[in-house]
Design a protein that fits this description.
The chain has helices at about 5-15, 20-50, 50-65, 70-85, 90-110, 120-125, 130-155, 155-185, 195-220, 230-260, 275-279. Helix content is about 80%, strand content about 0%. By secondary structure, it is mainly α. The chain has one domain (about 10-265).
Length: about 280
């Protein structure tokens, strides 16, 4: 393991000179296109595994576990209902916008690595397909845990705090593998699995934390439509996009961490070795 202070400096060095906020905005554009088709595909396959009626009941439990200030429960129920009735033809069509997220990730990583790669879009879309195939498994786990979290959300302050903590831990565990896969497979430099797992676990922890922060934000009775002339739907969409942008900032910093951890540590004869050891 490399000392933490030089690792942090190397991550900052890798990001210096790059407009990471702009890269995250571009990645958010791709994510905004892919998030709903991916969710529908995950729910559809989960329905095939669990059964349509059970999936609907579990979807109701997941909706009950969310705050209702800005209509999040109704949105979850609508997505579950639409996903359960997707059909094979629509599922195949939905793969096209869902795979665009892999293109966005690949293009962002190519820019951070300052590579001149041909066909990054095609490489990214093909590389993300195994991840899309694994997404229904994550959906099944979340749906099966939904009644437990719904029961905690209906309790007192201590029960809700415990539910938030356990949801954070569950999100961390579920997201570590996919984020590590993204860093390993969609990178033009292909870092080692150990570096990808360490960086993926770190980034997944922050992503899970921001997810719980967004759930807390949903519980606040804010008038999201006030800055947009009373259009609450527009304000809600802007809030989701801003949240996705922050998450993608975390993902990009985590990618820089994976590249840093994959680099060999300085040896004793290296002029930088004294700095590393001192750090």
């Amino acid at each position: 393991m490399r000392p933490l202070r030089p690792v942090g400096r190397d991550v900052v060095r890798r990001l210096r000179g790059h407009d990471v906020a702009l890269y995250a905005a571009g990645l958010t554009f791709y994510g905004g296109i892919a998030v709903l088709p991916t969710g529908l595909l995950a729910v559809w396959v989960a329905g095939l595994v669990l059964g349509a009626e059970r999936t609907a009941r579990l979807g109701d439990s997941l909706a009950d576990a969310l705050p209702g200030a800005v209509g999040a429960p109704e949105t979850v129920r609508a997505v579950v209902d639409a996903g359960a009735s997707l059909g094979w033809v629509t599922a195949l069509v939905a793969l096209v916008p869902a795979s665009l997220y892999g293109e966005g990730l690949r293009r962002a990583f190519v820019r951070l690595d300052e590579e001149d790669e041909s066909h990054p879009g095609r490489r990214g879309r093909l590389g993300v397909l195994p991840l899309l195939a694994a997404t229904p498994l994550l959906a099944v786990v979340v749906l099966l845990c939904a009644p437990f979290f719904a029961a905690l959300a209906g309790g007192g302050v201590g029960s809700r705090a415990l539910g938030a903590y356990l949801a954070l831990c569950l999100g961390w565990v579920l997201l570590t593998g996919p984020v590590a896969y993204v860093y390993r497979v969609l990178s033009p430099k292909t870092p080692g699995w150990r570096a990808a797992l360490l960086a993926g676990s770190t980034a997944a922890a922050f992503v899970a934390g921001f997810l719980q922060g967004f759930v807390l934000f949903l519980a606040i009775p804010l008038d999201l439509g006030r800055p947009f002339g009373g259009f609450v739907a527009v304000g809600a969409c802007v809030a989701v996009v801003l949240w996705l942008w922050v998450l993608h900032l975390v993902v990009l910093v985590g990618y820089a961490l994976s590249r840093t951890l994959d680099a060999p540590a300085p040896t004793a004869g290296d002029p930088q070795a004294r700095l590393v050891l001192r750090g």
